[in-house]
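R.M. (postdoc): so does anyone remember the format we settled on? I'll just put the structure tokens first.
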């Protein structure tokens, strides 16, 4: 007999409304198994299941693809309230300098010299990762379903190679392959994450990298009220360490160049809508506070531990093997190969 489903209390004021006729049962989107354990009911009333086959947490019943398409087509203007858009290039440059010091970017730079490399960001949002990569000399490309985000990237950040749509706009035949494909806060969104992931891995050149930053399902284990299931309720699945190793078994030769659990959710911004004054002040402070001081403030707020003091995100860099004849040669990395 299965244990009762754990009912989770509201933490994020932004609770999407999903109509019952828009909800559909689905198997695990990563391995297609229907062997699951229903574990949690989120504040939006959707059930989070644990796949007994691959270890992925996923929502089922889930909203239809058409419903999610409508949600994401105006994601930044409504759900994100446009707060992640720097208002001009000066603010963007300041944020980019801070971005360079965040754990994911630091680890990527340690593995890959960005100069003249082709970088593709799937679900690039406001484009700040690509903007920062371009400042390091990369040739940047991106795709996002939200037209506001795409227009912003082009008009304010001056990046013309960002398209509106999904990953399937890119094909090896038409666009070639990339030295780095990035999924920053993206893995958790698409219903068909298995096919999206396969396509992303095909777009990586031999010897290249796939970077995934996503809410950490591993952190749910042993908790009756995991924070990650009470915020950002548009998420459809949650990566775990076990699911990551399932992926590696499905794609022999790929290895983990880097893995860690890192960061905190910004709960203060999620518990009530920001006022006009607060939003205005936030944008002003982004213009005048130097990145070095921002890092000091964040360190104080996290008891001196910084990003590495938290476990909200799972961050991994996967390395694609170099093929020589019929032999796969994988360069050594910081992680393990599963």
């Amino acid at each position: 007999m299965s244990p009762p489903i754990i009912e989770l209390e509201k933490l994020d004021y932004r609770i999407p409304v999903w109509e019952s006729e828009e909800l559909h049962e689905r198997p695990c989107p990563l391995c297609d198994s229907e062997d699951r354990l229903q574990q949690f009911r989120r504040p939006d009333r959707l059930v989070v299941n644990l796949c007994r086959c691959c270890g992925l947490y996923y929502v089922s019943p889930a909203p239809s693809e058409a419903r999610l398409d409508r949600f994401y087509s105006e994601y930044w203007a409504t759900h994100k309230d446009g707060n992640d858009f720097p208002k001009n290039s000066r603010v963007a440059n300041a944020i980019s300098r801070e971005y360079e010091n965040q754990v994911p970017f630091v680890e990527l730079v340690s593995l890959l010299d960005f100069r003249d490399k082709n970088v593709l960001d799937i679900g690039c949002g406001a484009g700040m990762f690509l903007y920062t990569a371009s400042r390091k000399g990369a040739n940047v490309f991106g795709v996002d379903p939200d037209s506001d985000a795409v227009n912003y990237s082009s008009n304010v950040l001056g990046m013309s190679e960002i398209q509106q749509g999904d990953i399937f706009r890119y094909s090896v035949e038409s666009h070639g392959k990339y030295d780095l494909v990035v999924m920053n806060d993206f893995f958790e969104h698409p219903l068909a994450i298995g096919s999206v992931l396969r396509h992303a891995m095909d777009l990586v050149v031999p010897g290249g990298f796939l970077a995934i930053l996503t809410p950490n399902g591993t952190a749910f284990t042993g908790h009756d009220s995991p924070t990650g299931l009470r915020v950002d309720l548009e998420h459809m699945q949650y990566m775990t360490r076990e699911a990551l190793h399932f992926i590696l078994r499905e794609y022999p030769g790929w290895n983990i160049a880097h893995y860690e659990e890192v960061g905190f959710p910004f709960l203060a911004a999620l518990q009530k809508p920001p006022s006009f004054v607060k939003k205005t002040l936030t944008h002003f402070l982004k213009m005048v506070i130097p990145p070095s001081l921002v890092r000091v403030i964040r360190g104080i707020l996290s008891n001196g531990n910084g990003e590495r003091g938290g476990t909200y995100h799972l961050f991994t860099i996967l390395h694609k093997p170099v093929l020589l004849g019929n032999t796969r040669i994988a360069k050594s990395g910081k992680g393990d190969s599963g």
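R.M.: ...and that's the designed sequence above, right after the tokens. Also worth knowing: The CA atoms of residues 123 and 186 lie 6 Å apart. The chain has a mean pLDDT of 84.
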